[in-house]
Every structure is written in structure tokens, then in C-alpha cells.
Amino acid sequence: MTVNCHLKVDTGMGRIGFAVRSGFEEALAEMEACYALPGLRITGVFQHFAVADSTEAGDEAYTDEQYALFARTLQALRDAGHDTGTTHCANSAAQLRHPEWRADLTRAGIILYGLDPSPQVRFGDLQPVMTLKTVITQVKTLQDGQSVCYGRTYTADSPRRVATVSVGYADGYPRLLSGSAGGGVMMVHGKPAPVLGRVCMDQTVIDVTNIPEATMGDEVTVFGPGGADTADTIAQKAGTINYEVVCGISRRVPRVYLRGSQPVSIWNNLEEG
Predict the structure, then answer these.
(1) Using CA atoms in the order 180, 184, 186, 192, what is the torsion angle rounded to 10 degrees?
(2) pLDDT class for 118, splitting at 50, 70, 90?
(3) What is the DSSP letter of 56?
(4) Which of 13, 75, 89, 173 has the fewest CB neighbours in a 10 Å radius?
(5) In Å, how far from its chain's centre is CA 68?
(6) DSSP label at residue 174
(7) Which pTM value belongs to this model?
(8) CA distance 187 to 226
């Protein structure tokens, strides 16, 4: 049996790979030894940029150094008579900032969601494509002095019309968006509905006092195009990055894939198997 594989070159990411940055000749010898292993076919060579999504002068210099070191490694392997196969080094930021580095393929990540790699590196033509939606499961009126959710972190100081929606941190909606401090905002009938109290595992309460038409079964946009929040604003409020927000949507949330505005496929992990 022969196994095809790609060699990972560590030019400065520091996670995995042959450490050409700290010992070029030693790492090169280790890679060459892999070509001689029985049952192994080297079909590609790759590396990963650490700060291609930064415009800081030092980071840009570091990215240039990484690419130069990767190119040097490829050339050394080829000079030694080895086929480097499919070569790739560019993540989302690098493939758009440095099209000359695209090699045989690129590894698009965050830009597949139509989102920018970082606040520093933004591309005006990208359009967000992911929307998280849920529904209202109950609507009621909180009286003055009544509270909602764990910890009683929100207590009404006047009658408030509130809606419970079926989304929570088990679905990937960050608990850090709880209440007024977190600042989470969903959208109902095109109007903003702030999160009240703590985000729970399966449910969240929103304020629909100013949305009198809101009723049980209504669609709620949690984030995305047409929503009050986006993956970027949620990331900012939660102190993280947009990629964690979109990747954090759990497997139990059904995925509806659209072409244009029409569903073409639905994947529901709870119904698989």
C-alpha cells in the first residue's frame, strides 16, 4: 500500500512541520529522507503564514521572510532531484494580497464566508454569505420587577414585551453577548431586538417591546446579512475573531445551502444515520 502525502515546512508558524527556519540543512535532510521511505509518495509541499493578515511593518517583513524561506526549500528539494508535486502556501489574506504567491493552489478560509481576514486587511468586494436564523418560541410581558434567565441579571423596571428564541451557546451563540453588557442584538421583522439577561444553553430572551407584530413562530436573524449583528460585530463584542464565530456554529444547527435565494441542499446532523 502506498500513501500519498504533502510535506509541511515550518517557515515560522511554529506549530508543525520541518523547521527550516531554525535549521535549514537539518530540516532539508529530514525531508529528503521522507522521499526514500517505503510506502510513502510525496505529492506536495506546503507551509502556512503566521501574520499575512497584518499590515504592521514588522509582520509584513516576517511574511516576506516566510515566503522566501519556502521558495528556498522548494528549490533545494528540486535541485536534489525530488518532485515537489503540488505546492501551496497562501491562506485567505496571502492569496488576495500576494496573488504572485498562489502557486499550484491556495487555501481559502475566512474569505469563503465573504468575511475579511482581519480589521487591518479588508477587501471591499467581499460580501458575507452566512446567516444564522432561529424562531420565536414564546412571547410574554414582563411586569415591573420581574427578571429573566440565570442570575437574574436583568430585571424589568417597567412592563417589557419579551420573546424567547431557540438559540444559545450550545448552538454557538456566545454567552458573552448576554444582556446590556454583552450587547447582543437580533433582528425581528427588520427591527433590532436586544438580548436581555444571560444567553442560556438552548434559549435566549430578546426585547420585542418595540416590535408589536412579533409573535410565536416568527423568524429571527441572529446574525448575518440583514441582521442587527454580523459575525464581525459579534467578534468585536465577544473579544474574538469573526472566524471563531462562524466556525463555532455547532453541528446540531441545520445547514441550508442556497443558490441565489433558493435552497439547494439541507444538512441536518440530528437526522443523519
Answers:
(1) 50
(2) very high
(3) -
(4) 75
(5) 28
(6) -
(7) 0.91
(8) 8
